[in-house]
Amino acid sequence: MAGWLAQAALRVILGFQHAVPLLIPDESGYLLAARLLSGGAASDLSWRTFYQGGYPLLIAPAYWLSDDPATVYRLVIVINAMVGAGLLVLACLALRRMGLPKGKAYVLAHVTALIPSAVYYSQFALTDAVLPVIVLGWLLLLHTWLDGGGRSYAVAASATVAFAYSTHARGLILLGVHACLLALVAALRGRTARRDLWPAAAVAAAGAGLGWALNTWVRHQIYPSGVAPLGDWLTIRLTSWDGLAWTLSVATGQLWHAIVATWGLAGVGLVALAALVLRRDAPSADRLVAGATVAAVAGVALATAAALPSEGTVANLAYGRYLACLTPVLLAVGLTVLTRARRAVALRAVLAAAALTLVTMAIVSLHAGERLTRDFFGVFDFPEISFLTWNWGSLNLGLATLTAVLALTLAALVRATAPRGTGLAVIAAACVAAECAIAGVTVVKVSAPWGNALSFATDLTPAGLRPQDRVGISYEGLHWRIWVSHAVQVPTRLVPVDLRRPEGLPPDVTLVVVPWRAGTPSQSTWPAAPKGWWPVISNQNHAGNWVAWRRSPSPAT
């Protein structure tokens, strides 16, 4: 309990400074769905990426406690922290399953729970704040069932993966892996397993059906005109040679990010899991769950790479967010191998992981070419990598790889030379120190500056925003980042406004946001404004220029 509280407190401290969504439109999509599920107003994010309803179900209570958008956002951070800190508990159970004694398992569970991606994403209203807990819980339930537990564990594993399916598109891959595992168990264990399989399969199907119904309803309410057709990208990429080359290269980039962001330890874990699948003398429960984990890593990387639109960003080439739900599992396995396996076995795993890191780097470099320096680099996509290279303006692929390989080599040397009982302490202390440093520096270098800039760029509060305001938006010429941010701040659905037809303005609209062309007076941004309307705030910023007009008896001073 003390460890869980400490983990939750750290996440709250890091994220409580934020008062507005930063990673948009993702955060806005989840927040608007949560508002809808709490009984609030719908919105319109048509033709943007669809953000599913499972995670908004968890954070919807924040809207029951407050109507203030900033307070709601901070309550979401608290919910994230409480759920995300559960990674400590589950990691401790997983490490105990892998043969570590209680004390060592507890220490390494803290290392696993403090993994930079899990701590970083807990600061935002994103599925990624809770998905690692869901994934690890699913794998533990599967292992308990396969290792002799009752059918209730199989049913619970099915319910968990069904919720993952309702939470994010990655959950569809996990659900597919789960279904294949059930079929494989039926083939291997025959009649004795069928009494467990039927209830588990029924719950998985029913849960997936409920998740589909939930997401269909959310889609109709918030995306009335349709969503971004990511499935089209998936089809194109998987049915052409160029598309397949893109998919394999980008999936490799995701794997590279997961390994380097954990100083090579996730690579050790992945190598160990793959080797375990091939070991015929290993317990069947261990082999099956290891196989499910490897299949999930491969499936998530390939599917997300195929569906990812090409946006001209470095994150298109090497991105860690999609595998972040599985990275804690790989890290926990890698830590176990490094600290528990025989020295010769640990050394072979380290060498294989180092080779895998170099190979993935080479593939990413060949595929990306000049795009690594030419395309847009978003530091918020690479906080751990930027820390490793201390470069916050570009991705240094070679230096990041070299740093990770050197860190892994040092860990292996400590394991090989340290006196018995001290190696784990040194490795754990170094990992925790690095993780805490990354968490703190990321806030200073990434989250806080970006949050301050975006808050200034999109805040409607200076316009005197009131709960009873009805806000109109002139979508034509206004950058999407502005109106998507405003949609979260306004308690009702934004009203489309045609600036050329003021007579069509609904009478209950009290505030209108219009685009502002640089170099023109703010008063000229709405030439056909009805009598009694005046600009009350003008904002020129990196996200786009805009002016807010309010119906009032006299001009604002």
TrEMBL record:
Q: What keywords is this UniProt entry annotated with?
A: Membrane, Transmembrane, Transmembrane helix
Show the stretches that span the lipid bilayer: 72-93, 129-146, 172-190, 197-214, 255-276, 288-307, 319-338, 345-369, 389-412, 424-444
Is the keyword Transmembrane in the record? yes
Q: Does the keyword Cell cycle apply?
A: no
Q: Mind telling me what this protein is named?
A: Uncharacterized protein
Q: Which organism is it from?
A: Nonomuraea dietziae
The organism that produces this protein has a lineage beginning with: Bacteria, Bacillati, Actinomycetota, Actinomycetes, Streptosporangiales
